[in-house]
Design brief:
Blueprint lengths: L6 E3 L11 E5 L6 E5 L8 E4 L2 E4 L1 E5 L4 E4 L20 E5 L2 E5 L2 H12 L2 E3 L15 H4 L4 H12 L11
Parallel strand pairs: 1-10
Antiparallel strand pairs: 2-3, 3-6, 4-5, 6-7, 8-9
Helix pairs in contact: 1-3
The chain binds zinc ion (ZN).
């Protein structure tokens, strides 16, 4: 666990960096499902109107699977950017919502919030994910609450959940 003297440098990533694999609430069973944005060999593009759409997949351990070509991606807010399903990693934190796309996203938030010394990305950092975090997440006053919520969320991820298999 990062102490208050730990140094943390913004790696400069944006939200879409975490959008290849998003944990969502399955519309069939209510469990934890995956939205996969990169399908490797099965990747397929279609032109719908004048927009190119890419195949995305919803997959759940209950057997529910959906392949679709959703429209323009909408990043931001507690929903996956493709199917607009509610995120699995979404919790109340003292009356505010703390959410993440996947465990790697949680790790970044935890490293940042837990660090006492935060450094900006060396690259032009105007709109990195961390630069865009709301002030209450960054506030030292809320650090313990935010870290506790992050750990609580991580504990809800089913073991072995990943894109493989
Ligand atoms: Zn399901």
């Amino acid at each position: 666990m990062a102490g208050t003297t730990a140094r943390f440098t913004d790696p400069g990533v944006k939200l879409h960096h975490f959008a290849d694999e998003v944990l969502v609430r399955c519309p069939e069973c209510g469990g934890c499902a995956l939205v996969l944005a990169r399908l490797g060999d099965e990747c397929e593009h279609r032109w719908i109107g004048d927009q190119e759409h890419t195949r995305r997949r919803l997959r759940c351990g209950c057997g529910h699977t959906v392949d679709a070509f959703p429209g323009s991606r909408a990043f931001g807010g507690p929903a996956d950017p493709y199917f607009r399903l509610p995120l699995w990693l979404d919790a109340d934190c003292r009356g505010r919502r703390l959410w993440a796309y996947n465990p790697a996203h949680l790790d970044l938030l935890e490293g940042y919030v837990g660090a006492g010394l935060r450094e900006r990305a060396t690259a032009p950092a105007s709109m990195t994910l961390l630069a865009r975090l709301p002030a209450w997440v960054k506030s030292a006053k809320h650090r313990d609450d935010v870290l506790r919520t992050i750990r609580r969320l991580r504990a809800t991820v089913p073991p072995g959940l990943s894109a493989a298999g």
